Amino acid sequence: MAEAFESVYRVLGKDFSNAGRVSTSIKDTLKRLGVSPAVVRRVAIVSYEAEMNLVMYAIGGKMSLSVSRDAVTLNVDDGGPGIPDISLAMQEGYSTATAEMREMGFGAGMGLPNIKKNADEFNISSEVGRGTRLFIRVVQTQVS
Amino acid sequence: MKSITLAEVRDVLGAEVLNGDDLSIKATAVGSADLLSDVLATSKSGTLLLTGLVSMQVIRTAIVADLCGVVFVRGKKPGKEILSLARESKIPVLATPLKMFEASGRLYVAISEGP
To answer: What is the ipTM of this complex?
Structure first.
């Protein structure tokens, strides 16, 4: 059983060489807390996609990690441009990425769908000109 | 399909080992991709990634998705910064002069028809 833990991480926008650093650190933390490898992997993937979005689109933001007895929760907040049509952004393959983002292996319209796929609970809200918020919860099931 | 060790991968691809001391590590699966979101979406833990994309994000993807190693194809060599992240994170890195198609094909044959 993992111990309880909370932490907030700041992500800088356009800082491509460090993009992903927060997620690898979140992964180390979850491992250290004794979270099961399958849950660690799912949270790390969710976190990495969200972090790349913050770096690529949002000019940075904040990721808050919370670990409780039964779940890992990630809240992602940015003050970026916002998403005008969320249902479109949730479609696999829909992307507004630049060539630079695609050259890094991201920006193919897979990020948000990937996040949703790996989450047990997922919520997204966005306001154009104000920013985007994600709520992700991954349940720690006990393997018997 | 049988699993394949990194030492066998090195031999099959005529690859150079740029990072990794333990080549007895077994790849549970092999995948070829330049799109890291696809790797994050479809790979299983223990997968060996073949890619023509050279960036810090390749190594971070390997860390995040529990990949067993990375092979850079088409003679691409990662820079110092990328290799030092790989060393720090204990991600084995190989480089082969082969193109993605041939490298993938050779590994497919090795895994399917191996002893």
So the answer is: 0.90
